[in-house]
Write a structure and sequence with these properties.
Chain lengths: 445, 445, 445, 445
């Protein structure tokens, strides 16, 4: 049994700042508010509903995670954020069309009180969007100062003890890391010289980390995964986590691919198509934005089915991913996967999966868990990359010398064993030989 | 780093005895023979094709399992068995229709040399079958003596160093454990008094264990899971493993259900239908035989989605399983699953999975792995129930005080960590905090 | 151009009597009422929304059916009926759970005014049902007299000009035609002697036909298809139509099978499973009631893919139909069909269809169309079996010497050409050679 | 009963010329040859396997089509053609990988004797192709003269009585009709001046029609549907038919959409994706070639679900079609359709269809039927556009003032009634009132 870390208690209010207050953000906030009032259940959130096994199986200890680690409670949360539209959360939730109107009406007052601050916006990074609630400064350094002030004001106005920030905004266009991203010094120089390679999402992250506020990147944007921001996170002892919420089809892929790997089944091809009808789909209809998503989704299989290690089984997988904007579905999303596999002696089989899911419903509990776990990490003095939160990401961030882990089940074990480690509980290995050794002795002698 | 167990080397021939020499057994033997000749690849077999990660991720050590633990090689295997039809394996493989004729012809001679011994058969236990290659004694004890002689003769004739036995026969009718099964003494008394509750499969298992031959139960039959045979296994230091090969739909279920559990998604219903056209389907068309299968398949979900622990999410799952005999599919098998799930705030979603699989192709590598791992267990002096082989079973056997583990990924971790334990390698927990602690220190100070 | 029939005008009110006022009946009535108020659109009803092409293609004449033939309008309809529960239609609609609550509330008053008369009920014919709003006479003849009075009273109270009756009740147990059903005289004798082979549905049909009220049988019950009632229909100049509304999976089957037939594709098997969660599903969970449905559904394929005529293609079809009660779906219904086909040189292909449908939503417009078309038939003096309404039935009624037509497209052509015939329009054959003959002459000479 | 047309008898050999001798052409020829030898059955061919109903239902007359109309028999067919690769049909069939090797071997000699003539090829029209067996003239008129000579030589060498030509080549790039296509005179001028807008497929068609040889266009190429070639067809009394063989997903669409139309169900969206791995897929991977296919496929729904006529149901259909090159499937092809429909009161439902088909297996019988029916048309003196063959096409050709008919069932009725018309049999309208009128009279009086 290890010693547990010292973790400060989650007293006072925790402010959750959301850059991007559309479907995901409003579904998240509405769900928390409704859960507080007993109108809904926060299903899909590990922090609120999952159990964690502790000790030996025969001890039958499986508390809720929220009863095991010191997390902020739903009652302590306060919501704020930025958006390029000036709609308050009540209006935005109705426009998003995710939740039934009667539910939205029942928490109207709370939602109306959450209004967006003016956003940092750069049309080059989101071609299909256009909004009016934007900051007017054209100098990046001035924008950073505004964001720092926004953060400070929000904390004071709402009497928050601590803050976290979770990006719920759009996918930016594809771009690759440049010289300006390679160190904190160069990045700050770039801010001062208005370098066009500094994307809006990076500016939010910079302002958060500078303020010591943990930051999570929900979209596939190039943002946290640049040396400059990793450096800043360590400097200010701030946890970071990213990127790209793992929701529909990729979630399913990281469930099924580990199953094929486990049984050593070969894979010849994996064709994935996705049809969706919400604003996310509209943004991704622009090829430069789709590319960002495509790259984020594409590596998932390679990470699980290692073709270098096992070329006979996975050396030649035709992996094709398509995302199609199809308005009849609205916020619903459908994935259709066709998987061509082969088994014993090369005989071929197929798996076809049709996942009728809902984008924001799957993303909202991730926002909640990240907010609470990042706040825990901050209090436990875990700084920088939080690999133990890989579970939530399509493209988990790791140290440069490590391969990211995509297998959902290894990700979950990493998360759970990290919690056990933090609390000084024994790690679980599923070995279990001890149960049997005593028995054998009982019976035999 | 723990000390490794002393494991005797796998020298000499290993005889694999197969009660039931139909589609699964012939596909298994043909695949091993073809692999030896370089005509096919033993895909789907962990012992032959899977890698196992050892040590830290940065060590990049992932040998093949067969290069890590001392297993018998394919060249050392010899095949034999019993069947109620007198077809040799060449004839039986053609009748089964699983493999392409050209493949069967290319190894005709080897297959023709494998002929079944006369089987112990009791029509009450398999209503839809009828065969002529059966032992004629009506006294159970006399049948046992014949089986013991069969085993001994096979070992001597073929110059085997060791034997294992893997049941590849049919599903017997549903029956529950009785007094006669409750201890070895009562069981042996029942054999002498011809107790009708002793099924043919139990008689094979008794003969194997009595001879110190490890035994695996591929069908859902009540057999190994009675106190009498568990007692005998410990007495003769013999490993046992069961039951019911986890192949098509249940395999998929134990992949997907852990994924839903991981993400804390609620489940309202799971409807599974299975259409198949082989002899297995014909046997299961008899209601009493289907019941045995149904019970075996039914507990899988409860084991993963624990309704007592988490009634809001899994307290009321309508789980319905159907198996339908549908001759157009032949040995192919299709599962169609419709899963009704719910997430954040109770919103409903659906997953539909159509698995176009092949029964014997998925079962054959399991037979191989079990033969090699049970032989390993014998040499490593692991006696009785082998919970670490849960991976292969629809209904894994455990100690009475333990819940069986159905989650494929926990099963795999248990298997892998057991191998690491046997070889004195460090267990893998996926914690990985150490990678990060040094980095933080590097950068910060 | 033929002469049209003389058809009396649809003046005054048309009363629609519904034995069985559950999900289908309430969805039907609610939809008509909501359509009258402009709150909904009667989609799926040919009489309200379909067009019919008249004359040559170049004439571009395609009026709505309701503008072409003299039908009663929605405003002229009045609703009534019988049920074993005393709920009014508002209560019954809420219990059925088909329509959104806000829709039901918006027409609450109209629905509350529709209350069921006491039903004729016989538990032997519907094992899983139990109700309290039933007629207490045990003598069948007395029950008939009550029904005749109910009909007369309803007509007078509501000031109806004409009536039709559409059975929306449950599936009765399977039974076959007996001596008592073989002539009107014997049937009436049976009513007087309380013959147990006279089912409740037959008594409603007898009362309707005796009153000259057209009758349609929405369930697969043995009812109209007995000589006694056919005789009565002709005697009273009354149209009859049945049986078993063609809604989800069978509808799809009579769409796809004609397509396979058209392209001369062979069929080896057709596996259909159906999962549904409403009261209909509960009734069909009783094997004797399921049998009635199974027989009704089973003949559909044979009627389209004629194995006697073309044994190479359709001589050996494994057709299996399953209906499974699965409560999570509620009134939703899902069909999953797997169709094994073969083409050129015998090569095999598969079609898989997953139909996520809604039972009552598909049935309600059929009730409306039948009510209006049967009333038209009555006014057009078409008595007895209405084969031209085969379109609406899983098991269409025909003369004994004719094979029923199951192909949805031949059924539609029959329906449309019958309307053209009644109105003196030219029948459509899709020949169209004339368009081309003139052109050739124009160009060539 | 009408008088039949005078149709000359199909005496002597019929030569079938195939521009493009890849997967479709070899599967067609191999199937005909194997059928002649009794090794296979020409399933999927109406001319060989379908029956046609004649007269009243009670007459029970349903001969095979080939026994009803005077068609050439399989024994009379001779095969030839052109290809850019010099492989004979044996080699090409093996490369195509559609048929099992053992089948190809069993007719090796016949296939080896069919070798391609040098092709007219223009890389601008098929970017992803490259071949060496091409005519070297760069002057279009010279190429035409070579084609005319090829046709004449083939006829004489093989002793053919008549010829037909069926394009089985690739999809050319998208281009629209120009001035040069607007009349025969301008087209011939363009041939002499090497107009780049004259595609290779047009040159084959010109040569065929000039020679009085019926021509069918199996790809979606702009070819027959230009005024120049329609004029030539009438001038030489030659039938033409096109375009784009209706095989997998579009076939299914023209089966299911008429079903939705029949039942007056609304459609909000239809998403179709297609994955295929053969050379056709490779060609369509080039965007300019895909566009040709997309346009051909896109109009199918509009033709069936007429949004102008019925805007409430079909006025706003999101129809999206995708074709994806996915090598693991080889010549197999999978369509996945998701159809969003709505019924009574606007309630939504979905249909999902997964069609696991084989491209060449579905196309080959179409080639056969077109060859035989076009030869019949020629002998029956039906010149120009053959609208009665719409059944076989994704984009059926019609007179300019007519809308093409896409509904598979109207297409079939048109085809069948044309055959009845040609043979002087009564057209079938499915009215059938006469059966009932006599009965009523029998019973009533």
């Amino acid at each position: 049994m290890q010693n547990s870390r010292t973790i400060s208690a989650p007293t006072g209010k925790l402010g959750v700042l959301l850059p991007g207050m559309g479907a995901v953000a409003t579904t998240f906030a509405a769900g928390v508010i409704a859960s507080r009032k007993g109108l809904a259940h926060p299903t899909g959130s590990l922090t609120q509903t999952a159990n964690i096994r502790l000790g030996k199986r025969t001890e039958h200890r499986s508390p809720k995670i929220r009863d095991f680690v010191p997390l902020a409670s739903l009652d302590q949360l306060v919501f704020g954020g930025w958006d390029i539209y000036s709609d308050n959360m009540y209006q935005a939730a109705l426009k998003a069309g995710v939740l039934e109107r009667s539910m939205v009406e029942s928490i109207r007052e709370e939602l109306e009180n959450i209004t967006p601050m003016k956003a940092v916006f750069d049309k080059r990074y989101a071609k299909n969007l256009e909004g009016e609630n934007v900051k007017t400064h054209s100098e990046k350094w001035a924008l950073i100062e505004e964001l720092l002030t926004d953060i400070e004001n929000f904390k004071n106005t709402n009497g928050c003890d601590r803050l976290v920030m979770v990006w719920c905004g759009s996918t930016e266009i594809y771009h690759e890391a440049q010289e300006v991203h390679s160190s904190l010094a160069k990045f700050e120089e770039g801010l001062r010289t208005n370098d066009p390679d500094i994307a809006p999402s990076m500016m939010y992250a910079y302002a958060a980390l500078k303020s010591g506020v943990p930051f999570a990147m929900g979209a596939p944007n190039l943002c946290l995964d640049i040396p400059a921001l990793e450096e800043l996170a360590l400097l200010t002892n701030t946890p970071i986590a990213g990127k790209d919420f793992k929701t529909g089809q990729t979630l399913m892929k990281t469930i099924v691919a580990p199953g094929l790997r486990a049984r050593a089944l070969g894979v010849r091809g994996w064709f994935s198509t996705n049809i969706l009808g919400n604003r996310d789909g509209l943004v991704l209809d622009a090829p430069e934005n789709f590319k960002t998503k495509e790259v984020s989704k594409g590596n998932v299989l390679d990470g699980i089915l290692n073709g270098e290690q096992n070329p006979e089984l996975w050396g030649d997988i035709h992996h094709k991913v398509r995302i199609e904007y199809y308005p009849p579905l609205g916020d619903n999303k459908e994935g259709w996967d066709n998987i061509d596999i082969f088994g014993w002696m090369g005989y071929q089989m197929q798996i076809k999966i049709n996942f009728l899911c809902r984008d924001s419903i799957l993303a909202a509990p991730i926002v909640l868990d990240l907010a609470l776990f990042l706040d825990l990490a901050k209090r436990a003095e875990l700084a920088g990359i939080q690999e133990w939160l890989s579970f939530y990401w399509k493209a988990p961030q790791t140290l440069p010398e490590l391969e990211p882990i995509h297998d959902l089940f290894k990700q979950l074990e990493k998360l759970e064993n990290t919690l056990r480690y933090l609390m000084g509980e024994e790690l679980i290995t599923n070995l279990g030989m001890d149960y049997y050794q005593s028995v054998e002795e009982d019976i035999r002698y």
